[in-house]
Amino acid sequence: MVELREKMVARLAAGLAELQIPLSPHAMEQLCDYLTELERWNRRINLTAVRSPLEMVQRHLLDSLAIAPLLQGQRLIDVGSGAGLPGIPLAIYAEEIAPDWQITLLDSRSKRCHFLNQVKGRLGLTAVNVIHCRSEAHRPTERYDAVLTRAFASLEAMVSQTAHLLRPQGHFYAMKGAVSDSELAQLKARDDVATIAIHPLEVPGLAHEPRHLLSMTLK
């Protein structure tokens, strides 16, 4: 177990260096603690198809952290957060690099929200808020600066189901593998979309797999 932990920390440190994200040893331990909890809970409830903690370092931690330098705004909501991705890694990043961030994790499944609250408490993530709700039903008193999604059904569905959460001039951020021409065409056909930008991502250890962050604003 100690050897696995050392390998996780080493892989994470190498990936962070490649991403040029200067997290402290404490933050790296928090990230590995999160994966330990995720792996443990995953035996009971389905949180991720990735079973290997070492693979989780690349596919979950580094994949989530790769988008951090591209995000704008302070009040962020991770819609359909599931296992806390990308919200939990971003919250740990925020503690050291973006202390003004407030991150809401929204999920419709009570078991997943219970897991997210357990992680929040164990890691002491004071900037995190967990909400058990469907995105369509969530009515915040103050709308968010950014809406984040990872592996959402479709880009058009993301905008349709979460536009009411975003403040004027706020940003949608969709984490995608490949971005299809048909999905882009659906977005461009909408009257309310103002800008669309696609940012290629280079995730350490996943160079052979396409990764993109698509950002959008509304009129």
Structure description:
The protein is α/β, with parallel strands linked by helices. It has a single domain (2-218), classed as Rossmann fold (3-Layer(aba) Sandwich), CATH 3.40.50.150. Helices cover 41% and strands 22% of the residues. The protein is built from seven helices and seven strands; from the N terminus they run H-H-H-E-H-E-H-E-E-H-E-H-E-E. A seven-stranded mixed beta sheet has the order 3-2-1-4-5-7-6, sandwiched between helices. Helix 2 (25-41) runs antiparallel to helix 4 (87-97). The longest helix has 18 residues, at 2-19. It starts with a helix and ends with a strand.
Q: Brief description of this entry?
A:
This protein has 219 residues and is an alpha/beta fold. It has one domain: 3-Layer(aba) Sandwich (Rossmann fold), CATH 3.40.50.
State the secondary-structure class. alpha/beta
Shape label: globular
H/E topology pattern: HHHEHEHEEHEHEE
CATH architecture: 3-Layer(aba) Sandwich
Number of helices: 7
Number of strands: 7
- The fraction of residues assigned to DSSP E strands is 15-25%
Q: Radius of gyration over alpha carbons?
A: 17 Å
Please mark out the parts with pLDDT under 50 across 5 or more consecutive residues, or reply none.
none
Please identify the top-level CATH class.
Alpha Beta
Average pLDDT, rounded to a whole number, is 95
